[in-house]
Fold this sequence. Notes:
The complex is a heterodimer of chains A (110) and B (111). Chain A has 110 residues and is mainly β. Chain A has no helices and 11 strands. In chain A, the strands form 2 sheets. In chain A, strands 2, 4, 5, 9, 10 and 11 form a 6-stranded mixed sheet that branches. In chain A, strands 1-3-8-7-6 form a 5-stranded antiparallel sheet, with no helix packed on it. Chain A starts with a strand and ends with a strand. The mean pLDDT of chain A is 91. With 111 residues, chain B is mainly β. Helices cover 0% and strands 59% of the residues of chain B. Chain B has strands at 4-7, 10-13, 19-25, 31-37, 43-50, 53-57, 64-70, 73-78, 87-95, 99-102, 106-110. In chain B, strand 7 (64-70) and strand 8 form a beta hairpin. The mean pLDDT of chain B is 87. The interface between A and B is medium-sized, with 20 and 25 residues.
Amino acid sequence: DQQVKQNSPSLSVQEGRISILxxxxxxxxxxxxxxxxxxxxxxxxxxxxxxxxxxxNEDGRFTVFLNKSAKHLSLHIVPSQPGDSAVYFCAASDxxxxxxxxxxxxxxxx
Amino acid sequence: xxxxxxxxxxxxxxxxxxxxxxxxxxxGHDTMYWYKQDSKKFLKIMFSYNNKELIINETVPNRFxxxxxxxxxxxxxINSLELGDSAVYFCASSAxxxxxxxxxGTRLTVV
Lengths: 110, 111
């Protein structure tokens, strides 16, 4: 039973445009959500997070939106850059553990 | 300085052997974790330690035994390795208000 789902295994976006990565979850007890970025042969790197009491958090080119009623969150990257090409993991926390989605591979092409 | 370091980066070993993966963090975090990334790229938690105490032990065979000698270290010892243990293992540490920091992973291949 996968509590955190990323239904798009891959996404291809042109440089300069917006990348939108989606994530759905099933457990309404999750209170903290995170996005991680992972390059090949490296560990996931924390990117941005959001508490369940907020609906938006912005950090530079990255914005995370949380829709609690829909149990959905998304990561917006604008403008997208070739260096953003990586696998992005959504993760949710229920106090003492982190549950990851399966990841979405983003490719930003020139 | 590497914040979360795990060694070795690659480990190839035969079935039935016993091996250990070491993890150290210099971030002063209280909680450390071991995650397993399977062939489908899914990251799944195995263990979590808080201040040297085990707080999470997911459904993991008892051939896997974590050891935390101090707050900065969480090692993973695996007995009687099986083919299905082949995966990438990630160590991580966390302080709630600062998110999680992952090591670069250990690719274990059992032959």
